[in-house]
Amino acid sequence: MTAPRLLTRALVASFLTVALVLGAVFAVLSLRVRDQVRQSVADNLASAQQVFIKVEARRQQDMRASVATLAESPTLKAALDTWLTERSTASEETSVELVETVQREARKIAERVGADVLAVADGSRRVVAAGGRLAGSWPRGVVIGNAADASLPSARAVSVGSGMYHVVSVPLQLGESTIGSLELGTALDAHYARELADLSRGQAAILSKGAVLASTVSGPAARDLAAYKPSDTGGATMTLAGESWAIQPLSQLGDVTFLALASIDRAADGQTPAALQGLAWVGLGAMGLAVLGSVWLARTLTQPIDQLSRSLSAMTTGDRARSAVPLSGTSRELDQLATTFNSLLTSLASAEAEAEATYLGAVRALAAALDARDPYTAGHSERVSIFAVAMGEELKLDWEAMETLRLGALLHDIGKIGVPDEVLRKSGALTAAEFETIKTHPTAGARILRSIPFLAPHIPIVELHHERPDGLGYPYGLKGDDIPLAARIVHVADAFDAMTSARAYRSGRIPVEAIAELRRCVGTDFDGTSVEALIAALPRLVAATEPLDPKAMQWTPRARSA
Amino acid sequence: MMLRASVAVVVALTLCVGPAASAYARRYASELRRQSGGRVTGTVKLTLANSAPSPAGVYERRAVGPRPRAQPEIKSVVIFFSDLPATKNAPMQASIAQKDEQFAPHLVAVTAGSKVAFPNEDPFFHNVFSLSRGAGFNLGRYPSGSSRSQTFTRPGMVKVFCEIHSHMSAVIRVFEHGWFTVPNEDGTFAIDNVPPGDHTVVAWHERIGERRDRVTIRAGADTQINFTLPVLEPGQ
Questions:
Q1: pLDDT digit string (tens) for A22-58?
Q2: Contact A175/B169 with Cβ under 8 angstroms?
Q3: CATH for the stretch B39-84+180-236
Q4: In chain B, which residues have their Cβ closer than 8 Å to the Cβ of A85?
Q5: What are phi and psi of B164, to 5 degrees?
Q6: DSSP string, A49-91
Q7: Could you read off the pLDDT of A177-194 as tens digits, one per residue?
């Protein structure tokens, strides 16, 4: 199992952190939103109920006012007063017509004010006649409230028969005397509760002495409502049948309390999802941003590290991608790491270059030592190298090929180390066996170079510099284009230097002759392209090389004094 | 309750023995005319003007101009003999003015056949009407300075109202004999020339009710009788 990538880990870690924090924030927020929605719903209900209380108080006042106005009916007062006086007078018989008149007036007023029941009562609040929807439940003779109670408020809650009524009294006055009253009764029943509920745009309940007289809420909630205790602050929140309700007392009438109610839960249920949905969208957006942010963060963190690790792995596999790691500038630590790595690379490169230089020095020393074995071949390798490079320039070889050519040419005869001195220095003609010995030097050279890895590109030059285009060369007898160009160039340069150099057995030929000889042998011995390149480079070689190293460049034939 | 019971008894008696009594009364009246009567004096005391608790009004009582002087409640009481037979009396002239949106006086007592004038002394229209049984009338609306009259022939009580001003009311007691009076402001009263014998005297107020008492009248003598209204029942 491979370890996960750094990018993935950074991504997951940063995203998880952000998601966790965001999640916590949204959880807290959604709770708060729920609370706030509930609070605002409760506040709305409270203010709506406050408005309703004022409206309702005004409505009651208006009703009393209209009853008071209607009470100023001369017919009603005359009929009632006449009847009452006749009733209290032994010598008079009470008149049926008078009661009927009173009755008629009561019905008329009841109809005008829309009362459940409106009674005309005598001074003791005993009903004389009643009108209205519930007139039947206030028969004549019934006392509305306690007749002995002298401090009668204009509005009170009164129990008549089996029902409870909200009663507003308006006095009927004749001069300075009060002859009776109009009793405007509103039954505190489900009908009235519904009316209150309609007006308050919520629910309503009527409570008396810890019992619910009437309410518009369902049974279980109404049962719980019986536990309502009025508070000083007005509004209250109560749990009824498992739901939270806002309760606002509307008015108090003796033992009777009028309440406006509204279910906070039901109202909040409508608004909470909307608020939460908005929050969810914000959360989703935040998550998206978190993903983008963590991707960016992970990439910024891991990219320089990736680059570093790629450079390191390239180095260890031996590829020569040794360019310096760029400083990302994203963090001081990474830049320090890159700088350290770069200086490590630099020192490594210089160490390598030093090692190469050392090798090269050794090889060159070897080649020079080889050349020095024969006074006639002294400087040969250096000269072949110079010629080959010049020819390479004429052929427009690239830099790398030129380097290979330069070093390869320098080392081309390294294999001669294994050729005995007597064979190498023999001034006479070589025997067949001796020539065979000479012919082993390219393969021997290649064998030597193979032990040094950085000299691998030069092996073909060393191994094949005696092959000929006609296939008569050695060691393999390769033909034409099968021979690498570098080997062909070195072959021509080698031959040219050999021809122009003095030997123990002969003096060197002049370059013109050598060129002619080379030309003659194009196609058989020598590669045409290489020969032409040499001819083209020749003037430049004379000009450029001579002042630098007159000794080495002494390719004009002359005898070397030992 | 005693009051109610006694009223019921009187009503029942009146209904039962009415025809017989009327024949007897005619003979008795002619006898009375021959002899001189006695005199009843006394005092009426009102302990309570109005017993009903007054519920708080919605508005302040309406008042036009200065509040009119309240008439003494004692002037709304009438003292009369309830069991004396009818006599022939000369019609009386009485007047109830309409002033400061009230009838003044609030009560008049007259003999049957008397004419009561209702002069309008306010600077606006007034009306006089009654719903009392057998005596219902409506004098219509009439302007300031004018007067209309109504003759009352049926004995009993007539309540009078103004259909323009619903708080105005007056009461007229009509008697078939002359033995009645309205007390002075100090509550004292006197009825002269009452036929001797055992009689029932009544002190009546339209809202407080009535108090009855038996008196024995002797010819040429003063009989004292005092009333307290209303009748306080035991425990009250």
A1: 889 888 887 887 788 778 777 877 787 778 778 878 8
A2: yes
A3: 2.60.40.1120
A4: 157, 159, 171, 206-207
A5: -85, -40
A6: HHHHHHHHHHHHHHHHHHHHHHH--HHHHHHHHHHHHHHH-TT
A7: 788 888 888 888 888 888
CA distance A44 to A267: 10
ipTM > 0.85 (yes/no): no
Burial class (CB in 10 A: 0-12, 13-18, 19+), A204: buried
**Amino acid at the residue B39:** R
Judged by CB atoms within 8 Å, which residues 299-358 of A form the interface with B?
Answer: none
| The model's pTM | 0.56
DSSP E strand boundaries for B92-232: 93-95, 97-99, 102-104, 107-111, 114-119, 126-130, 137-142, 147-152, 156-161, 169-175, 180-181, 188-194, 197-205, 209-217, 222-229
Closest listed residue to residue A251, CA positions, set A55, A68, A119: A55
Residues 134-193 of A with CB under 8 A from B: 149-154, 169-171, 173-181
Closest residue of chain A to B208, computed from CA coordinates? A88
Pick from A560, A557, A551: nearest CA to A379: A551
**Is the CB of residue A289 less than 8 Å from the CB of residue A19?**
no
Nearest CB neighbour to A176, from listed B10, B59, B70 = B70
Cis status of the peptide bond prior to B53, with omega within 30 of 0: no
CATH superfamily, domain B86-178, is: Cupredoxins -  blue copper proteins (2.60.40.420)
